Amino acid sequence: MDSKKRIFVVDDEEDLTDLLQFQFKREGFKVETENDPFVALSIARDFEPDLIVLDVMMPDLDGYQLLRMLRSDRKLCQVPVVMLTARAGVEDRIKGLESGADDYVGKPFDTKELILRIHSILKRSTKQEPESSGRIDMGNVTIDEEDHSVSINGKRIPFTTTEFKLLQFFLKRKGRVQTRENLLVSVWKFDTEVETRTVDVHIRRLRKKMESADLEIETIRGVGYRLAEKGK
Question: What is the rounded CA–CA span in Å between residue 194 and residue 117?
Answer without folding.
Answer: 12
